[in-house]
């Protein structure tokens, strides 16, 4: 194991896309930011120095940070922000994980431009459990706004409504030639006939689940969220914000130029967003004048594709990489996901849209929750988050548009160390049904079951996959459906859980778990680092 050091300078830089130039927040002036390359077992020290006039905080999405929430990054959950002119060293070990993950700003909507890939190579001498690729390429999917994103959000808050949609989707920060003025902002990847490529695909978009496909080429999915899967071949993948997917692609087609493209999956007619980001897969020796071929992407509302694609995901579950699914459950949780409407005296209509879990809209504290927990600071949060919603109703029946008020609170759930938890996330028709990608910090979980309609505790658990369910850190709860996850609470700390649609997170679709310390000497939260940013 080695010590890997990185210096991240948070700096503002002018970038132009779609004929619009604007200052954006970057790491080291790069957009997307630098890739963090580490090896399983390494210790990583990333010194983040903030030269921008924004508060900053960075999350290493999917790294478990065992006993070390201090390095996790979500602002006001595990640390206070790094203020202008200050630095903080994220100091962590990468243990028991390998694969593709990513990092992003975890404060306001700054992750719109502050994000990059994390590649964790397997231990030296340990091959991948699939054919060795000739080359690896990172594919980061994102969104671009012509206007300042924080201003866009402020505008939305004033109205109490969603802010404007992004103006483009991007592949490695570039929209591609289907957007105006974007010929020169097109990512291209050169391939050689007969070679195999590993694409490390990351969805860094703020608010869109995306389909991704390559014209003329199938993809073999081999890993999701840095966990190996049973390989399967597909024409398109579906990837939610926060998720990562590794695929193998073989350059065995007629040498030419092919588009790879990403477009949203959206099965509710709330907002129609069918902008297509495109990049080019170019065979060596083919001139740039050859017109590329576009791939077939599933239709934006292709729910059947989404369900079938997600249904194909299975953990590899090999002797070397077993799926240790908790078979017995100590704690059953059932959380409803809903939208709501709360009074807002400063908003134009006097109301604002909110979102809630078990009818509770999370209120961000002023102090880091992990500090409050560790130092026993009273009055910052309570641990009475309910295990079930206050009332049961027909969750996915006709839209419920009355009594949309939610409880505003910083309520957390307390979980005993090493207990096994099953959490059923149930989408509801409070205002509207919608798909929600849920992310849990500090853990991977097993997605043991999913379904459309209302979860039925008397029938559905019998159908759970307890053998080789996918293991991930972010899972899409289907529109008007439910997802059941299981994990063992063996990582003490305060761990954020939220919808990875930034819009919904900012409306309060989030909570956190307080996982207690164990009795063993090495089962408690590590002491905080000396340079932890103060509030
Ligand atoms: Cu990738 Cu809490 O986020």
Automatic annotation (TrEMBL):
Function of the molecule: Lignin degradation and detoxification of lignin-derived products.
Lineage: Eukaryota, Viridiplantae, Streptophyta, Embryophyta, Tracheophyta
Entry similarity comment: Belongs to the multicopper oxidase family.
GO molecular function list: copper ion binding; hydroquinone:oxygen oxidoreductase activity; oxidoreductase activity
SUPFAM superfamilies xref list: Cupredoxins
Limits of the Plastocyanin-like domain: 10-124, 136-285, 384-518
NCBIfam families given in the database record: laccase
Compartments reported by the entry: Secreted, Extracellular space, Apoplast
Protein name per UniProt: Laccase
Alphabetized UniProt keyword annotations: Apoplast, Copper, Glycoprotein, Lignin degradation, Metal-binding, Oxidoreductase, Repeat, Secreted, Signal
Catalysed conversion reaction: 4 hydroquinone + O2 = 4 benzosemiquinone + 2 H2O
Cofactor note: Binds 4 Cu cations per monomer.
Gene3D superfamilies with a match to the protein in the record: Cupredoxins - blue copper proteins
Enzyme Commission designation: 1.10.3.2
Record's keyword annotation contains Ion transport: no
PANTHER family: LACCASE-2 (PTHR11709:SF452), MULTI-COPPER OXIDASE (PTHR11709)
